[in-house]
Amino acid sequence: MEEVGGTQTLLLNKLRDTLDAAINGKLCVRAWLGHADVLFLGFGQEVLPGIILGKGAGRLEQPEPPYKLRTHLSDWCIEHQAIGILGSSYDDKRAWASASSLVGRRAMGWQFTSSPSGLEIEFVGGLELRIKPYDGSQFLNEDAWSVRDPDGFYSMVTCNGHIYLVHGDEIPA
Questions:
Q1: Domain ranges, residue 133
Q2: Residue 171: which pLDDT band, with cuts at 50, 70 and 90?
């Protein structure tokens, strides 16, 4: 992640603080996939029950993890000791199994990758989640991934590495 002056530096610091609080030493408490294998991971202290989907599910009270990581225009994969296992480029069933393998695992740390806005998260047991934003000029200003804090603020990261902050009520669909 390229550091720049002014507002982007403040937003980068906020993103780092949120990632530290969300990930370092926390459990992956929930994982689920959205449309087009968008990955959602919840982080906290206790594993939560799975998301209930289907008719009427929107009316159910479902516990929310304190922190939530969401991919958008990014490929993701889970690796074990630098060997790729599965991720967003596989069929839904295998991608789901891969994402679910993180639930209950403690995250040891995170780092930005060499791409402008990539992210890696290391888990106990040698598993690593790699998020790689889409390439191409049509994706530069589009959201690659985000992390939500307990106050409902999302630190949004674009494919070209810019960061902006929105409240959950204002998040783009």
A1: 7-170
A2: low
Residue 2 is assigned to a structural domain of this protein: no
Buried/exposed code over 137-155 (b: 16+ C-beta within 10 A; e: otherwise): eebbebbbbbbbbeeebbb
**3-class SS at 138?**
helix
Task: Give the β-pairing of 39-44 and 67-71.
Answer: antiparallel
Looking at 18-27, 77-86, 125-134, which range is the least confident one? 77-86
Tokens (6 digits) for 112: 């930005």
Angle 104-72-20 (CA atoms, 0-180°, nearest 5)? 50
- Residue 89 domain-assigned? yes
| Residue 16 belongs to a domain | yes
Which of 19-28, 30-39, 86-95 shows the lowest per-residue confidence on average (mean pLDDT)?
Answer: 86-95
